[in-house]
Design a protein that fits this description.
A 6-stranded mixed β-sheet has the order 5-4-6-7-8-9. It has a 3-stranded antiparallel β-sheet with strand order 1-2-3, with no helix packed on it. The protein has 2 domains: 41 residues, no CATH class; 199 residues, Maf protein (Alpha-Beta Complex). The longest helix is centred in the last third of the chain and has 18 residues. By secondary structure, the chain is of the alpha+beta class. It is elongated and about 90 Å long. Helices cover 30% and strands 24% of the residues. Bound molecules: inosine 5'-triphosphate and magnesium ion. The site of inosine 5'-triphosphate has 22 residues, from strand 6.
Length: 259
Amino acid sequence: MKVIAVDDSPAEVIDLFFQVLVDITTEPYHYELTPSALTVELAGKQIHSETISLPQTTEKTLLIATRNEGKTKEFKALFSPLGYTIKNLNDFPDLPDVAETGMTFEENARLKAETIAKLTGEMVLADDSGLMVDVLGGLPGVWSARFAGINATDAANNAKLLHELASTAVTPERRTAKFHTTLVVAEPDKPSLVVEGEWLGSIATIPKGENGFGYDPLFVDDETGKTAAQLTLEQKNKRSHRAIALQNLLKKLPEWQNS
Ligand SMILES: O=P(O)(O)OP(=O)(O)OP(=O)(O)OC[C@H]1O[C@@H](n2cnc3c(O)ncnc32)[C@H](O)[C@@H]1O
Ligand SMILES: [Mg+2]
């Protein structure tokens, strides 16, 4: 049998060629398609190869069980090199708010991730995080989002924190603090994956910087001496509690996904 070279032919001609080939030949042929190349061998001889670019067929989307756009912005930047599109609960208005009734970051992160995973049937990531100030015995901790009251604004929470530390007995050395994140990944009918991350620093006496969210204007990073709000998103994502927790998560995620 004579094989006609089809390299450089339009895609439809190549398709037709293979159809005819399959119809008329009884010779064994091997067809290999990868995202970047198409090669065909007939009777052990390569008869066609071309460089191709297949559209991504399986878009990776990850739902994060949060309504906090500050966290979401950080997760989007952290996950984008991995090819994930990030969605949050604000993209799904019909999903309920999950009450954070736990006494620990892990309990609250589990509540958020496991409730939303059950309702959607999908793999879901949740972040429960907060600021822990040593001289306040770890407060505001799990109450960070509601330190100044239910639905408190970031500005009100920051003002309350400065007020709590206003005593002259709270010298600069006694203003040490850390940010904490617990991440939980949940899927229906499977034990959840739990990881943590922390970021050491101290509390400034006045807010500084425009970036970030929450307590960022008051949290001074130990290493750079800048507040988290003075760091760019990229700088914060190299050292933050959330970034460290995510690194820990990525180390364990493949094994968890295969379990
Ligand atoms: O529960 P979701 O919907 O995720 O959003 P939330 O804002 O209520 O989030 P948390 O319950 O985890 O509370 C975390 C609070 O801790 C503070 N916080 C956490 N991470 C922070 C960060 O990176 N920078 C500044 N403040 C942070 C901030 O006040 C958050 O509102
Ligand atoms: Mg919350």
